Amino acid sequence: xxxxxSPARDEVSVFKTSDPTIAPVLTRExxxxxxxxxxxxxxxxxxxxxxxxxxxxxxxxxxxxxxILPNTLLLFCLxxxxxxxxxxxxxxxxxxxxxxxxxxxxSDQDDLLSRxxxxxxxxxxxxxxxxxxxxxxxxxxxxxxxxxxGTLMSGRNLGVLLMWGVWLFLLVAILTPFLGRVWCTxxxxxxxxxxxxxxxxxxxxxxRTNEYNNKFSGLFLKWPEFLRNDWLRLIVFLALATFxxxxxxNPRVSGLAVIGLLTVPTLMSMIWELRAFCxxxxxxxxxxxxxxxxxxxxxxxxSMKVCSECKPHYCQKGSPKGWACPYGINVGEMKENSDxxxxxxxxxxxxxxxxxxxxxPAASELGTRSLSExxxxxxxxxxxxxxxxxxxxxxxxxxxxxxxxxxxxxGLFGIYSIILNLVAVVIVPGLIYFxxxxxxxxxKTKKVMREVFLRSAGVLLPLGMAxxxxxxxxxxxxxxxxxxxxxxxPFGWGWDFFGTSNIPWxxxxxxxxxxxxxxxxxxxxxxxLRNLKLTWAEKDMGLQQRFLLSLPMxxxxxxxxxxxxxxxxx
Length: 570
Prior knowledge:
The protein is mainly α.
């Protein structure tokens, strides 16, 4: 249905959705029945409605929810969440020590490179990576051009839609969950910096620079020791997250941000060694780093014996066949996905062919290694909830707090900024610490508090990943028509390359969206509870002690899951 309501008229204009060019029917009142047959009356439980006539920078936030009763989706999800929790409790006592491949146990896992010669050739060759990187750079080029010189309507600006509709969906829902940090493999941001340092894209230059077996250009200074952690990139990420609505609603600001993300790593490459920006500053790595630990793909060494006998450490320091690892990693010492940018250089530089691409169970890695990594994990978990409420909620008062474009509510925006950062870096970490302390006290375990806290933070990752996926699904599905329109008229100048610039607006699979969101959250809840169980699967602890240690965090995970199920399905 397409009904236009204007405060300047007493009549409602009702358009035919299949052909909006037909003259509308004018009526003082329009009544419709809120029901949808769906599949056996169960598929559709909630639909979205929104204003799709541009009315200013905050246009994308003009939306609401239409709940169709009985809401079988809500009942199904709540029942399933309760069942998952009950089964988790039963499993804590009946199957306390089930076998699970941890991040360092790959003795019986499947090496994809050994199984497929074609895949190995594609991985070790520089051409496929170069082609995809250039294509990604072309996308960045289009984003910058259309953001800076195209229409100010964010909903019809191709740059905004490509970045925050298409790319964000692919990164969050497809690439990172299934392939880890594969975006970093083809990311164009460090491209110019790599070319400055290496002076080549294909052939490593012979010579030595510092302790590395390749010759590099630039000052090539060591990154400061006190900044070799996650704190700086967390600060950068939260700064951008605070102004996220401005980035989405104002194409010019979005374009300038992308230009900055290209310029900063290029300048940093002239001063610091390797990919310092990617390792310590990049806001994208704040997301892909922790959540790559959930991926069923892992790059590791085939044999620890071969690595221990390799004194030159070619994978880390470089060789005649490949450059030194841009992330400063020794494959033989790597036990987690978060630090490795999957640049694939080690598959070329290792002269012993000892690098493997492992297929493993999803969400295999447990816990966190440091306080900065724990804070990073808790912050991105928090922002998944905040963004969902902010972008997909139907409360005008929330939008007023971030509206510095139309209403210039700088006072409210200041309050929002303080609340957002307090929740992300103080309140939620404080809550996780309190829950860890409660579990430790109730179980009377002798484990130190720091270890309990770090392990507890790690169990947020599967549910956090699910919440992010649930958030980005409508970001793409709602905007599919706008993307098709903008591809045909990328600058909003009246072009129509593909004949789609004036097609009527439709949502993509609206009847499936809430079901997908609910099922994905349930899957994340299951994996988080499973990881919580595995985190404390130690035989020196009694079953009751393990249960009491895990109980506070399990209740928090269930509460977060139920709360977001209500949000997305009701």
